[in-house]
């Protein structure tokens, strides 16, 4: 009889403990939902908007503006914004970034990159071929032109992204990312000749696509160059897409 009483008591205590834990957890979840809902309502109360943009300084290629805007809480704030002076009003973006895939018989596909000295960085950078959209050019036409100017290769457009931002905390600059295939067996691409603009010094570097990230990191270690974020993100995405997914350890209780 005593054993049965002890057993029943333990069951009731455990049930009470579990119920208390569940109750506390439910209260915490409800409180968190209320806080999130309150935050959402505050954010919905005011739509962020630009009040005015005032010029601070302007040169040939870029200008600095003071942007006055209203944040989601309704408070007026000031932001310093860098803009290009070259973008046409009807242009969908400031420029293009080209992902050139060099394809040759009996060779691994390669990504064609360019290395050039960048004064703002004070050193050499590894980048995709890129440039500004000129006149009434389409993004695709600008991409093929820039590719030939910087690398000498002639290619075919595979796809073109919508306009994407580059550094939205600093500038309103946008670009189209254009994927281009290069037929390396074509006579025009066996000995490509660059067509650089005045003051443009570009070194062409082709790296195997299937080992892109490792080859980039080797270049960084050997030449102490900086890598454009778009290039590194692309190489990292290739690695993530081809390697075995990360194993999440099982929790032990």
From TrEMBL:
Single GO biological process annotation from the record: nucleoside phosphate metabolic process
InterPro entries attached to this UniProt entry: Nudix_hydrolase, NUDIX_hydrolase-like_dom_sf, NUDIX_hydrolase_CS, NUDIX_hydrolase_dom
EC number: 2.7.7.96, 3.6.1.13, 3.6.1.58
Origin organism lineage: Eukaryota, Metazoa, Chordata, Craniata, Vertebrata
Keywords: Hydrolase
Gene Ontology cellular-component terms listed: nucleus
GO molecular function term, any single one: nucleoside diphosphate phosphatase activity
Domain Nudix hydrolase stretches: 91-240
Keyword Hydrolase belongs to the record: yes
The species this protein was found in: Platysternon megacephalum (big-headed turtle)
Span of the signal peptide: none
Source organism superkingdom: Eukaryota
Entry similarity comment: Belongs to the Nudix hydrolase family.
Name under which the protein is recorded: ADP-sugar pyrophosphatase
């Amino acid at each position: 009889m005593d054993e049965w009483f002890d057993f029943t008591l333990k069951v009731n205590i455990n049930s009470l403990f579990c119920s208390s834990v569940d109750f506390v957890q439910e209260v915490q979840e409800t409180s968190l939902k209320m806080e999130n809902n309150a935050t959402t309502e505050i954010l919905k109360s005011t739509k962020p908007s630009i009040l005015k943009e005032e010029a601070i300084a302007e040169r040939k290629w870029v200008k600095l503006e003071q942007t006055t805007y209203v944040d989601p809480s309704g408070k007026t704030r000031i932001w310093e914004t860098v803009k290009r002076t070259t973008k046409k009003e009807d242009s969908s973006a400031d420029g293009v970034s080209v992902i050139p895939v060099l394809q040759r018989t009996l060779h691994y596909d390669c990504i064609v990159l360019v290395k050039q000295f960048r004064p703002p960085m004070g050193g050499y950078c590894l980048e995709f071929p890129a440039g500004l959209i000129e006149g009434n050019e389409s993004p695709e036409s600008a991409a093929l032109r820039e590719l030939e100017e910087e690398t000498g290769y002639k290619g075919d457009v595979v796809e073109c992204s919508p306009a994407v931002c580059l550094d939205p905390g600093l500038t309103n600059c946008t670009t189209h990312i254009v994927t281009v295939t290069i037929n390396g067996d074509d006579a025009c691409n066996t000995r490509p000749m660059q067509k650089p603009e005045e003051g443009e010094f570009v070194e062409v570097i082709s790296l195997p696509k299937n080992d892109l990230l490792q080859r980039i990191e080797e270049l960084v270690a050997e030449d102490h160059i900086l890598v454009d974020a778009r290039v590194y993100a692309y190489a990292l995405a290739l690695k993530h897409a081809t390697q075995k997914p990360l194993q999440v350890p099982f929790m032990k209780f």
